[in-house]
């Protein structure tokens, strides 16, 4: 026999389910912003997760997959034991293992992510104007499922991490990569250089040019590491190097390389690499440091290449090769740490000239070259293959678009133009 109390309980459960669906829908309407804020928070709080741009992008996909999964479980009353782990979450765990990031950093990220999701839930409950008891019941229903999901998914990703870590370490190339990572992280003066040379089979006392190579989503999938390693080997052969290049895998789709330069090597190795990549049918994306000598040069050139890669990835300019020694790359790299703040500064400095339009892009590029040629209309005209009157017109128009004359803030304008040149849409305001 169905009692009045049973009916009331069913009505209460239906009301809670309805309010839970309402809150999920409200968060879903601004899902990209919520997911982006969680990704940035995790990268800021968990130091080990910073650095590699591709890994940060996969972190975002992992966050999105987890949020969608737990919300689907709530909306459709799916038992946590019956859901499937998000593909991006498992792949992120494997990549974290490949990069040697501790598993406790991964687990901590899940706990912090749960905290952030519940903070957004509470914010939406307040905005929805629910009655106090309904608000409390709604938050309780969501938080219970969220806690159970985090316990469950933490075990899933930990298992994926440990399996991948064992496989990665057992791989011969990965063991070499671990030795290289140890070498990069070791304190100055603490390395037995002869033992290190024997371990990684590379001449550390030479002059080095470091590279970071990676494939993109547009590239043909399959055997990515073999393709990257072959490119480095063929590049070294084309440069008449006395010793072979060093290549180690960074993860499944990217690697690190070093070229041991010598007196017999190409006079301008950076330019040679540009031409070699341009002539290669299936060249990967490539970021380079500058030539540096000795063990510290081995490390420093690699750090430079990492910064150049940040510029290449943030800029999304479809450039195959980015060199740390290119004008403005080092400065742009410093400004990739917080792209939102950089975009705000660029827009304040350039005004409407920072609009993401083809016309403003032409004006910015003309002014950048004009400044680079020492404010010479003739020099800029030669570089841009334009008449000097056309250069003058564009420069004047650029100043007009900016909305104020260039005076004591010229250095700010020059830096902003360089940043726009390297980072493109990432630091520009949307076209009106």
SSE diagram, text form:
Blueprint: H1 4-28, H2 31-45, H3 53-75, H4 87-98, H5 103-128, H6 132-170, H7 172-185, H8 193-200, E1 207-214, H9 224-238, E2 246-251, E3 254-261, H10 269-279, E4 285-288, E5 292-293, H11 294-315, E6 321-323, H12 329-334, H13 339-350, H14 358-372, H15 377-384, H16 388-402, H17 410-423
Helix pairs in contact: 1-5, 1-6, 2-3, 2-5, 3-4, 4-6, 5-6, 13-17, 14-15, 14-16, 14-17, 15-16
Describe the protein:
The chain is an alpha+beta fold. It has three domains: 4-170, Globin-like (Orthogonal Bundle); 202-322, Alpha-Beta Plaits (2-Layer Sandwich); 335-427. It contains 17 helices and six strands. The longest helix has 39 residues, at 132-170.
Short note summarizing the structure:
With 432 residues, the protein is of the alpha+beta class.
Q: Which strand-content bin applies to the residues? A: 5-15%
| DSSP helical segment count | 17
Low-confidence stretches: 1-8
Basic shape: flat
CATH fold node name of the largest domain: Globin-like
Tell how many strands the DSSP assignment holds. 6
Oligomer: single chain
Please compute the radius of gyration using only Cα atoms: 27 Å
What structural class results from the helix and strand content? alpha+beta
Assign the CATH architecture of the largest domain: Orthogonal Bundle
Instruction: Report how far apart the termini are.
Output: 65 Å
How many structural units, i.e. domains?
3
Helix content: 55-70%
Overall residue-averaged pLDDT value: 90
Largest sheet: 6 strands, mixed
Question: What is the top-level CATH class of the largest domain?
Answer: Mainly Alpha
């Amino acid at each position: 026999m169905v009692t009045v109390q049973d009916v009331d309980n069913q009505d209460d459960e239906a009301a809670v389910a309805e309010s839970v669906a309402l809150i999920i829908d409200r968060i879903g309407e601004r899902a990209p912003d919520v997911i982006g804020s969680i990704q940035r928070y995790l990268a800021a709080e968990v130091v080990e997760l910073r650095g590699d741009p591709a890994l940060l992008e996969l972190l975002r996909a992992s966050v999105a997959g987890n949020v969608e999964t737990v919300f689907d479980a709530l909306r459709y009353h799916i038992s946590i034991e019956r859901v499937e782990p998000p593909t991006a979450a498992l792949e992120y765990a494997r990549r974290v293992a490949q990069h040697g990031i501790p598993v406790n950093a991964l687990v901590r990220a899940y706990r912090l992510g749960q905290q952030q999701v519940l903070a957004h839930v509470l914010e939406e409950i307040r905005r929805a104007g629910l009655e106090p008891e309904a608000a409390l019941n709604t938050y309780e229903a969501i938080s219970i499922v969220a806690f159970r999901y985090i316990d469950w998914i933490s075990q899933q990703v930990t298992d994926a991490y440990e399996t991948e870590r064992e496989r990665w370490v057992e791989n011969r190339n990965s063991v070499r990569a671990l030795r290289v990572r140890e070498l990069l992280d070791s304190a100055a003066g603490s390395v037995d250089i002869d033992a290190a040379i024997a371990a990684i089979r590379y001449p550390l006392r030479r002059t080095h040019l470091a590279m970071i190579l990676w494939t993109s989503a547009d590239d043909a999938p399959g055997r990515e590491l073999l393709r990257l390693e072959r490119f480095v080997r063929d590049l070294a052969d084309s440069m008449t190097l006395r010793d072979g290049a060093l290549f180690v895998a960074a993860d499944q789709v990217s690697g690190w390389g070093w070229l041991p330069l010598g007196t017999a090597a190409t006079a301008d190795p950076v330019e040679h690499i540009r031409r070699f990549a341009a002539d290669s049918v299936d060249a990967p994306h490539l970021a380079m440091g500058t030539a540096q000598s000795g063990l510290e040069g081995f490390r420093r050139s690699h750090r430079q290449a990492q910064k150049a890669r940040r510029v290449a990835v943030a800029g999304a300019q479809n450039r195959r090769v980015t060199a740390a020694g290119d004008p403005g790359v080092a400065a742009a790299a410093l400004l990739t740490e917080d792209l939102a703040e950089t975009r705000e500064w660029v827009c304040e400095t350039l005004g409407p000239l920072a609009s993401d339009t083809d016309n403003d892009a032409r004006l910015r590029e003309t002014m950048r070259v004009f400044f680079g040629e020492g404010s010479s209309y003739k020099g800029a005209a030669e570089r841009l293959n334009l008449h000097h009157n056309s250069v003058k017109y564009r420069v004047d128009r650029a100043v007009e678009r900016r909305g104020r004359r260039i005076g004591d803030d010229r250095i700010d304008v020059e830096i902003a133009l360089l940043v726009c040149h390297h980072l493109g849409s990432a630091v520009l305001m949307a076209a009106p």
